[in-house]
Amino acid sequence: MKTICLYFQVHQPFRIRRYRFFDIGDSEYYYDDYANESLMKKIAAKCYLPANQLMLELIEKHGNGFKIAYSISGTALDQFELYAPEVLESFKRLADTGMVEFLAETHSHSLVSLADPDEFRSQVTRHSERIETLFGSKPKVFRNTELVYSDEIGSLIADMGFMAMLSEGARHMLGWKSPNYLYNNAINPKLKVLLRNFMLSDDIAFRFSNRNWDQWPLTAEKFVTWLKNKNRKEDIINIFIEYETFGEHHSAESGIFDFFRVLPRAAFKHKEFNFLTPSEAVSRLQPVDAIHVPYPASWADEEKDLSAWLGNDMQNEAFSKLNELRSLVRKTTDHIILTDWHYLQVSDHLYYMSTKVFSDGEVHKHYNPYESPYDAFINYMNVLSDFTRRLNKLVGSKEAKTDQMERMLKEKEEQIASLQRMIDEMREAKQPIVGPVGIAEKPRGETSTLAAGTQGIAKGTAAITTPLSAVTSEKIKNKLREPEEAETGKKKPQSKISSSSASGNH
Amino acid sequence: MRVLMFGWEFPPHISGGLGTACHGLTKGMAHIPELDVIFVVPKAWGDEDQSTIQLLAAENFPVRKKSVEMRGFLKEMTFLEIHSRIMPYMSPEEYEKIDKKRHSGSSIYFNTELIGKLKFTGKYGPDLFQEIANYALIAGVIAEDLSFDIIHAHDWLAYPAGIAAKEASGKPLVIHVHATDFDRSGGSVNPAVFEIERRGMEIADKIIAVSNLTRRTIIEKYGIDPSRVVTVYNAVEPSRLMDDLKFRKKGNDKIVTFLGRITMQKGPEYFIEAANKVLKKSSNVRFVMAGSGDMFPRMIKHAARLGITDKFHFTGFLKGPDVHQMFLMSDLYVMPSVSEPFGISPLEAMQSNVPVIISHQSGVSEILKHAIKIDFWDIDAMADAIYGILHYGALSEMFKKYGKSEVANLKWETSALLVKEIYDEVLCQ
Predict the structure, then answer these.
(1) By percentage, how much of chain B surpasses pLDDT 70?
(2) Alpha carbon distances (Å) from A61 to A97, A262, A364, B94
(3) Fewest CB within 10 angstroms: A11, A307, A312, B336, which?
(4) Which domains does chain B have, with CATH numbers?
């Protein structure tokens, strides 16, 4: 028996509007509402709705035979709620069939797994909870943004209680091995790893409508023959593709919908095939080996690494500047700040800054609202500058004040210490003046006790000054904290109002 | 293959990019063994770089008559009949030879120096049309005198010379369009110049445009058959790094530079407006406008009116080493040209590790990837890009990393090879 495991990625970012540097401090709204709404509506009409309809028909037609999985990013869910609630409804209908599994991912479709384990866990939890609320069952399988996987990320996910995680079946991690088996995590063998068969997945996702491809046109029968010709012992073929493949990357006229309409039937003609969701596949199959991925891999480009998001100086700077803000963001509960934070972390922003557009071309150009990676970087950094400013205004300024006071105290302490040293030195210097000959005559031990004595005095004064300064610094800190608490207390109702108005669209 | 090339200026005596481009191209052509270039300019100072080419100054072909009458000096075609009337003073034998070939035709009178040489000023000036006509006249003489296979004329000033040479020798003519009057005038085209350009394009066997932007202008505005126009991009010579700086940058202020003729074509006012926007938000930045031109006084007034002259500086015309110096002091170079057929200066800036902002309305934007491109009129975008490069460190790093190697790949040898292919094609026809 060979399992065909189909999973579709559904994601849309909140695209940032043209945000000039003179908007910094002037405008706190970052999004291109027109682009976001019109693109969502267009893709809903061309892809999500007809594709969901097709999947529903296929599930009804094949009884318990046809099963699929989705991962829907938090930002895509937000956009469905805002602009295309009918899409969410149709996903719910799919969930009701029981033949569809919804996977967990990071709520912000972020690359936080590479930066901060705590934040990573909280984003995963937030997404899982939302999926459970919307579709009724708690995700058991995790897929990371852009299929980023490493041994460590896998082990984090295992600790969170997931049974499996998806990954690219990249050549550099597999070597001679085949992606068409179940593997387990190298650190925690409890976590199973499903590997994407990128050849077969990309035949559909990238090459399907390419008339220069020697296999064009691809029919369901042909595709099934390829699956059939695989090694008999191979258990599972993971076809992981972006859902926008339907009707968006390949137009309906290319025949992509028809291809899928007949794919299950073509597969069922051969008794050896079945369709399973990831969690079903994982519980039925036995892992053959551990997969070792010491460095993070992804599903992008030739390299299957992070170079599409963190491949140049601009991307690295933007990503590290973003991550620097994390500690400040944790200190706020302001709904609008947190929403911006959520949207700014979306990996697409980094993708737009990729200079690979110059070499890899086509794939990178798709839906890139920017003319050049430089343009994308400047715009994002302008927004991030303003976001940082707001964040600092909200939580940072008091921090900065205490920091400053502490620094001042430290400086004063250092000054005291250095003055003390000078006094000591002068006292020590006095001794030889009084009796230089005497000292020379004195046995070594005595001079050392003398020196120790003066040091003792110095220590004593230092001991007096330190507790004093500690007390004062504590007092100052407390003083600063008081108004802060009072203010946040006052602010809370305000933020509630704003949050309810913002969530009015939900 | 021998090429008779007509230009108007040659380094170090240049008033714009034309001289630099001609020099680079001929240097690139020197790498092709079978090419031999005779470069004709109307005025040679004697200190030009002649290592790669044979430089002929039209002025050095003495004219026999002291004054030659010319009726309707813009009728280049008539030069054919005329040119035998002005006799280049050479050896008596040559003199006789040419004298025998004399044609009769309309008579022309030129004012010449006492020794009988035509005097050329070699500068763009009010008697330019006269100069062009003179130049064409002598070109015909040169063409009769020398042996060559193909004629190559750079820009409109030399088209009449190219045409005259073609008519005199019957050899094919390639014209090289570095700019059209639509670029220079900002739309208000001088009909006399337009006519010279259009004639050149019509008579030429092949037209080389320095960018697709220029190619489009030639096709659309001059009504030329697209199959006759080929784009060959300019390149840049490898920079000679100079470390013996006369002045070094002082202070921590970032320097943003505009360098070029201060004329409408170069869009200086957009630079000033963008500077004004940036200066409102950041204090540690200075702007420099280097160059001279007819809009210079207006630009100073403009900057003064905006009240930014404490941070906005004018240097006047810079040349040679000073240009290089200016680049070394700059943190950013901006070329907001309204219409720039190519634009070599951003490439020179990138060689000096200076990031560049260029307008979409420049030919160079067609080939550069590691530059920020904006529309010249979009001062918001320009200001934003300036601010971004000065404030977000990774950008400058990126430009330094990729820009220099990108420019290093733009070689005159490559352009010269393409030109050679065009010669071959023309000679096969």
Answers:
(1) 76
(2) 12, 11, 37, 98
(3) A307
(4) 2-235+415-428 (3.40.50.2000), 254-408 (3.40.50.2000)
